[in-house]
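// run 5 | inverse folding | seed 20
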């Protein structure tokens, strides 16, 4: 007799890999009416929308915004992303035109117990592996900009400390997109005078960087540069704040390095 046991349910990654994806450019044109000239494809299934297109929407009637707040996930892992994707799918199923806005997931938890953060089951965003592991390279650019500022702070101190940093009160930390508790609190500058002054430092995860928040709120490259310049990176012995623009770091972060090209193309909506 055939076994009465039902087949085991598919895992998240099996469901994602069995999904039949449509090319993103024709999908955006046909479903959302976004002209191809305003799309920047990353492969066949990912694209970014230019800011120029977003300004063309000002005359349209506003839609309704549904905010899914942070919620505690179930033991099976359903949390705010799974609920958001499921809600978006449900609204489209009943004839509404809904678009989901999600932040790119941090890479760190992917390798741990939590796993990826692109939804779950049949309520997930694809290509799931790309979204969880690299997507369009935005986080790499943010990490580079953050760590460039950290390097410029130490270099400024090494070359005379004209801004008057109190090395005990440097607030800017480095970032890495891996959960590594041994890097949370470290000492840098060891190895003699050629490597600078020893001081306490540490690493945060990339999404905890202030550059991440500024990147999300910037409306243009000029606005990005201005906001980066206002970052408080440390204090003098008189407790006076020192800004990124005081050591002329904001220009390098926003314009003078290869990071510029990634940040320029990243301002806008990243979606899949």
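// decoded
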């Amino acid at each position: 007799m055939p076994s009465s046991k039902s087949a085991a349910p598919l895992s998240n990654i099996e469901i994602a890999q069995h999904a039949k994806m449509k090319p993103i450019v024709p999908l955006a044109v046909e479903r959302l009416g976004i002209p191809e000239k305003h799309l920047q494809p990353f492969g066949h299934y990912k694209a970014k929308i230019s800011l120029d297109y977003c300004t063309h929407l000002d005359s349209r009637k506003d839609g309704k915004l549904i905010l899914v707040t942070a919620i505690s996930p179930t033991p099976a892992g359903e949390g705010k992303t799974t609920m958001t994707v499921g809600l978006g799918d449900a609204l489209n199923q009943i004839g509404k035109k809904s678009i989901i806005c999600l932040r790119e997931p941090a890479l760190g938890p992917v390798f741990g117990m939590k796993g990826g953060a692109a939804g779950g089951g049949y309520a997930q965003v694809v290509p799931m592996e790309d979204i969880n592991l690299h997507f369009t390279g935005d986080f790499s650019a943010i990490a580079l900009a953050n760590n460039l500022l950290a390097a410029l702070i130490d270099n400024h101190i090494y070359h005379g400390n004209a801004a008057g940093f109190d090395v005990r009160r440097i607030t800017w930390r480095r970032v890495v997109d891996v959960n590594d508790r041994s890097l949370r609190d470290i000492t840098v500058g060891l190895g003699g005078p050629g490597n600078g002054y020893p001081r306490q430092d540490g690493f945060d995860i990339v999404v905890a960087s202030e550059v991440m928040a500024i990147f999300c709120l910037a409306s243009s490259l000029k606005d990005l540069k201005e906001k980066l310049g206002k970052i408080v990176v440390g204090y003098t012995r008189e407790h006076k704040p020192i800004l990124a623009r005081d050591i002329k770091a904001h220009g390098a972060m926003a314009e003078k390095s290869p990071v510029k090209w990634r940040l320029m193309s990243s301002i806008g909506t990243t979606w899949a």
